[in-house]
Specification:
This protein is of the alpha/beta class. It has helices spanning 32-41, 63-72, 86-94, 104-108, 111-120, 159-169, 190-199, 213-221, 232-235, 241-250, and strands spanning 5-13, 16-21, 24-30, 46-51, 77-80, 99-102, 125-133, 144-148, 153-158, 173-178, 204-207, 227-230. An 8-stranded parallel β-barrel has the order 1-4-5-6-7-10-11-12, surrounded by 6 helices. A hairpin with a 2-residue loop joins β2 (16-21) and β3. The two termini are 15 Å apart.
Length: 257
C-alpha cells in the first residue's frame, strides 16, 4: 500500500511566510527559509511554497528564495505563483524546486499544462485548484466551481470536469483547496476531495481546513486523498510533522516515519 504524505504549505508575501483565513486577514509568521529548514528537521514529507502576491505585482516568483530553500531541505518541494511561462517554470526547477504549481494560468491558458508536461515531465506539473461551493447550481454537477485570483474570480468551470481535463492535458498531481474551508480549521471538504480523487488517475492533495489530526485522518479515509496539506497546524499551533504522522499511524494510516 502506498504511504500517505503530509505536506506543509508556506504562503509567501513580501518575503515572509503569511497565514490567513479564506485568503484574507493574513499575518506574517516567519522567514520561509528558516521555517523550511525547521519543518524538514521535524520530518515533513514535502513542502509547497506559494508566492501569493507575485501575479498581482506582475513579477516572477522569487527565484533566490527557491534557491535558498533548496540548499536547506532535501525532500520534494513545489513552488507556485508568478509562473507565467515555460521559462519561469524552467527557472524554478533549475533553482531546485521539484514541481511547479499552475492555477490561474492553467485556467486562462490550458495548453501550458501540456507544454509543461512535455518539457519537464508530468510529475513536475501540479494543478492548483481552488474550489468554491455552489449548492443547487445546475451549472456545476460536482457542487463546486473553480475560482481563481485567490478565490476572487469565478470561472464557470465545474471542479471535477476541470480536474479531469487538466489530467488529460498532462497534470501529474492535483492540490484541491476548498475556499470555504481554508483557514477555518473545521476539517477538509472531503466530499469534493473524494469526488475528484475518484475521477482522476493522479494523486490528489487535500487542502484547506485542517485543525486536528482527526481532520487529517478523515482526508485520507473519507476524502480518499493521497496527501494532506497543513499550514496553521504547523505555523500557529507548532505541531511537529513527525508527531502528527505518529498519531496517524496509531489510527491505522500508513505514513513514512
Amino acid at each position: 500500500m502506498l504511504m500517505k504524505r503530509l505536506i506543509i504549505c508556506l504562503d509567501i508575501r513580501g518575503g515572509m511566510v503569511t497565514k490567513g483565513v479564506k485568503f484574507v486577514g493574513n499575518q506574517d509568521v516567519g522567514d520561509p527559509v528558516s521555517l523550511a529548514h525547521k519543518y524538514y528537521e521535524q520530518g515533513v514529507d514535502e513542502m509547497v511554497f506559494y508566492d501569493i502576491t507575485a501575479s498581482a505585482e506582475n513579477r516572477p516568483i522569487d527565484i533566490d528564495m527557491v534557491r535558498r530553500v533548496a540548499e536547506q531541505i532535501f525532500i520534494p518541494f513545489t513552488v507556485g505563483g508568478g509562473l507565467g511561462s515555460l521559462a519561469d517554470m524552467r527557472a524554478a526547477l533549475l533553482a531546485g524546486a521539484d514541481k511547479v504549481s499552475l492555477n490561474s494560468l492553467a485556467v486562462s491558458q490550458p495548453d501550458i499544462i501540456r507544454q509543461g508536461a512535455r518539457e519537464f515531465g508530468n510529475q513536475c506539473i501540479v494543478l492548483g485548484l481552488d474550489a468554491k461551493r455552489r449548492p443547487n447550481d445546475a451549472r456545476f454537477p460536482s457542487g463546486c466551481e473553480v475560482v481563481v485570483r485567490g478565490g476572487r474570480t469565478p470561472t464557470g468551470l465545474d471542479v471535477v470536469e476541470w480536474a479531469k481535463r487538466a489530467v488529460d492535458l498532462g497534470a501529474g498531481e492535483i492540490t484541491l483547496n476548498s475556499i470555504d474551508a481554508d483557514g477555518a480549521r473545521d476539517g477538509y471538504d472531503n466530499d469534493i476531495t473524494a469526488a475528484v480523487a475518484r475521477a482522476v488517475t493522479v494523486p490528489v492533495i487535500a487542502s484547506g481546513g485542517a485543525g486536528t489530526v482527526e481532520h487529517l485522518r478523515d482526508a485520507f479515509v473519507i476524502g480518499c486523498a493521497d496527501a494532506a496539506l497543513i499550514a496553521s497546524m504547523a505555523h500557529i499551533d507548532g505541531r511537529s510533522p513527525l508527531d502528527l504522522k505518529r498519531e496517524l499511524v496509531s489510527m491505522g494510516i500508513h505514513m513514512r516515519l
